[in-house]
Amino acid sequence: xxxxxxxxxxxxxxxxxxxxxxxxxxxxxxxxxxxxxxxxxxxxxxxxxxxxxxxxxxxxxxxxxxxxxxxxxxxxxxxxxxxxxxxxxxxxxxxxxxxxxxxxxxxxxxxxxxxxxxxxxxxxxxxxxxxxxxxxxxxxxxxxxxxxxxxxxxxxxxxxxxxxxxxxxxxxxxxxxxxxxxxxxxxxxxxxxxxxxxxxxxxxxxxxxxxxxxxxxxxxxxxxxxxxxxxxxxxxxxxxxxxxxxxxxxxxxxxxxxx
Length: 259
Description:
Elements: H1 2-32, H2 50-71, H3 73-79, H4 88-106, E1 113-116, H5 120-144, H6 146-149, H7 152-159, H8 181-191, E2 195-197, H9 198-226, H10 228-236
Antiparallel strand pairs: 1-2
Helix pairs in contact: 1-4, 1-7, 2-4, 2-9, 5-8, 8-9, 9-10
């Protein structure tokens, strides 16, 4: 029975990963207005209206609350009394994917241009920066541990009856210059557009606000976990702007980003 539970956990983790991957690709198409049936500036967009604004704000709020609450250590301690610890991360990823898919499905586009870059070169540069942002997001997940971040390491460790190592403090690649390259990538992807509509602006403002709030919560958790080592890192490396004040003297590595 225990072996079957472990196998089912792996199947669950793999299914959730496929759901996440499809959701992530759809979200790119949603923001970039390509290859998806309904996008951020999709057909049928109306002007700024209280009803559309309320619905979009509720969808964004639902995603933010789900992501923030389920990421907190206190919630995890309670949640893992119900959900096996080995699938806790996969379950978080599943709920986040569902919330994001709901947002993409029920989003109400709002027309009206805030800005429009008509020069082809300028438009292509902005589009390139946006795609660079998505690339930074994906690369940054692999710099830490992509498959742990999305729950696969945990379910396979349980299958082999292995204990996961304790999170270590490390600064691989981009993390040497930016504390939150994943968030930086999202900000670039969301804001770099040749045509900023009212709906896109609402999305970008709300998600950027949530990112800043999420960074506050995450860094509080990281300070609690790593103490002075993370405080030094925070003082010497930019949050989302790439700079280093001085060489970090604390040995070790940062980051098992388990939020």
